[in-house]
Every structure is written in C-alpha cells, then in structure tokens.
Amino acid sequence: MTALKPNAELAYRVLDQIDAHPETWDQSTWDCGTSACFAGWAVRLSGWKVNTDQGISQVVIDGPEHVIGLEIDEAAQIALGSDCYLRRDDADDPDDPDDLFFSCNTREDLGRLVAGIFGPRPSSYGTGCSCDYLGGNTPEHAPGAFCPKPEERTEGGES
To answer: Which domain of life is it from (predicted)?
Structure first.
C-alpha cells in the first residue's frame, strides 16, 4: 500500500465547516444526510457520496474507484492521508492513542487533535469557504459553507 500524505487542508476545511454550521455536525453519527461527524465531513468535502441509510453499513457509493465500498472511517482516513490517531508520549497508555473520529470528541478536542496530527493550518489555505470559491467573500459562500461542486457553480457564486 502506498504511504498516505497528510491532508492538513482538508482537516482544517472540516473544522471550518463545523464552526460555520455547527447544526450540521454530530460526532455521534457518520452521516445521516443532514449532519455528519468529522469523518463524514471529510468524505463529503472530498466530493464523495455515501449511502445515508442508517439501517445498513454506511459506505462510499460515489467517488474514486479505490474508495467505493469503503466504510466512512476508512474513506476519511484515505482522504485525510492519515490514520487519524494522535499518539502522545505523555499518555497513560501509549498503545491507546487519541482518535480523531471518537464519538465523544468535543469541538475543542477536534481542534487539538487536528493540530496534533496535521500541524498548523497551511498558510496556502486560509479560512475561506470550504471550496475556497471566491475566497468565501459572497453571501452564498460564507466561510465554511458546504458549497456545490465546481461544475454546479455559476458566476457570482450562486448555484
């Protein structure tokens, strides 16, 4: 398997989405269609689609061939380029690292974990809209907004 390259930009885009629209974040569910956890948002912001039927295992149903059929946490690890665990030398049990996808993580936990796993926010990214369309400077594309795919955008940011 090819080594993963950490995708700090995506990790910070997920945090921006959660900050801009906390009503769409639920760390206790992968993706119910209206809200998602950190892993679910990483998959969504990668442009991949999942089945949102809570009665069955949630897997990627639209995206690159190598992620089709993967469960959300597995696909998110690929999108984020990391196993999404923060190993700490000061932990009580170094074999029990902090998990970015843990269902009880608070927003503060997520910020600490993202900084610990991916490092500081990339300077090339900024804090614009999640798709960075027009720098997030239009009402339709507020910072962190879940934006349409590039082919669905029109001049001026309206979809």
So the answer is: Bacteria
* Cα 154 to the center of its chain, rounded Å: 25
Of the candidates 143, 136, 26, which has an alpha carbon nearest to the alpha carbon of residue 153? 136
The CA-atom distances, in angstroms, between 150 and each of 11, 16, 133, 157 are 20, 19, 9, 10
- pLDDT, tens digit (0-9, with 9 covering 90-100), for 98-121: 788 988 899 999 999 999 889 999
25 shares its domain with 97? yes
pTM, whole model, 2 decimals?
A: 0.72
Residue 65: the pLDDT is 93
User: Which pLDDT tens digit goes with each residue over 38-88?
Assistant: 999 999 999 999 887 766 678 899 999 999 999 999 999 999 998 888 765
- Structural domains in the chain (count): 2
Shared domain check, 137 and 59: no
Q: Which residues contact 114 (CB under 8 A, 6 or more apart)?
A: 8, 11, 12, 14, 15, 100
